[in-house]
Amino acid sequence: LRDNFRLQPGDLVATAGQVLELDCVPPSGHPEPRVTWKKDGVTLDLAGGRYVVTKGKLKVAPARRSDSGLYVCVAANAAGERQSRGAHVSVLGRREAAPRDLLAMRPHLDNVTMLPTAAVQLRWQMLPPVPALVSFMVLYRSLLPTSTSWVQHDAGKLLSTIIPQLRRGHQYEFKVRPYSGGTQGLDSNSRHLWIPEEVPSAAPQRVTVGRAEAGNGTVVVSWEPPPPEAHNGIIQGYKVWG
Questions:
Q1: Can you give the chain as a three-state secondary structure string?
Q2: β-pairing, 80-83 with 57-60?
Q3: What does the alpha-carbon distance between residue 214 and residue 116 come to, in Å, rounded to a whole number?
Q4: How far apart are CA 83 and CA 68, in angstroms?
Q5: Which of 35, 58, 118, 127 has the fewest CB atoms within 10 Å around its CB?
């Protein structure tokens, strides 16, 4: 399990009775890791049939209010175990009466600003003024160097939020969607932001030097990449000198 999760689960708001889905693509490993899920620190029991895990994705049907909580994707093989970020899931007990004009409203995403920690702050507005029952969901995904599924981040009733710990060297797309109960409104305009790279903050690991078996004076140097959290971008190559 050398790499980080290829796709982390995102925060989610669902309505009771719906199908609740959380995505997870575990790190690559040999053998291929097995995926399980924990809710509030307790491993989910798949025997009841309400929880189904397929290729890492968790499906819960039908969703209940008691399904609200913190979900973690766990990848494990003979070499070890790694856990994903925690995804906050909220399940409403009933459909709130959506404002009659929710579908006529569209948020405007004003700006997307990178913070020093590779987090991103988003601000948006909505005209006419926001009805009391309306909340907002921020959706974001990586476009480059790899394309990922949309991740959801619940901003509540605020008109701004911070998305923490995005990956350096990646270009992201952001948009905002209003919702009220089980009804979702129109998506805002999209904005793109590239997270600048920085020099790796750790050296390659497990560097070894040895002679080649041929005995012709050739020296073999091997190493492993720095820890994933220290890459600070896309590592393009290595230079070796002596």
A1: CCCCCCECCCCEEEECCCCEEECCECCCCCCCCEEEEEECCEECCHHHCCEEEECCEEEECCCCHHHCEEEEEEEEECCEEEECCCEEEEEECCCCCCCCCHHHCCCEEEEEEECCCCCEEEEEECCCCCCCCCEEEEEEEEEECCCCCCEEEEEECCCEEEECCCCCCCEEEEEEEEEECCEECCCCCCEEEECCCCCCCCCCEEEEEEECCCCCCCEEEEEECCCHHHCCCCCCCCCCCC
A2: unpaired
A3: 50
A4: 19
A5: 127
Per CATH, the homologous superfamily of domain 12-92 is Immunoglobulins (2.60.40.10)
Contact 135, 152 (CB under 8 A): no
The domains of the chain are located at 12-92, 102-195
pLDDT value at residue 100: 61
Output the CATH code of domain 102-195: 2.60.40.10
The tens digit of pLDDT for each residue in 32-89 reads: 899 999 999 999 988 878 899 998 999 998 899 899 999 999 999 988 899 999 999 9
